[in-house]
Amino acid sequence: MPKNNNKKRFEVQEHETIGQCLDRMKKEGYLPVRRAEEPIFREETKNGEKVMEPVSKRIVFHAVKE
Fold first, then answer.
1. pTM to 2 decimals?
2. Exposed e or buried b for every residue in 27-64, given b needs 16+ CB within 10 A?
3. Contacts 24+ apart (CB under 8 A), 16-25
4. What is the pLDDT at residue 45?
5. Is 4 exposed, middle or buried (0-12, 13-18, 19+ CB in 10 A)?
6. Fewer CB near the terminus (10 Å): N or C of the chain?
7. Per-residue pLDDT tens listing for the chain (66 residues)
């Protein structure tokens, strides 16, 4: 069974604006259908317990082929 290549995820890179990411998607022939913000955590030890601290977020666009 062939793999469906009509969907792709695009992550906004570190030194890239959301607009630049959308332009990159358009150049590759994709349209955004969903935007997701995923938290990035850092593990720290506080009072002898491991704690996950949110430090930033990653913006990801789910896209489909035009």
1. 0.75
2. eeebeeeeeeeeeeeeeeeeeeeeeeeeeeeeebbebe
3. 18/59, 21/59, 21/61, 22/61, 25/61, 25/63
4. 86
5. exposed
6. N
7. 456 679 999 999 999 999 999 999 999 999 999 999 999 999 888 888 888 888 999 999 999 998
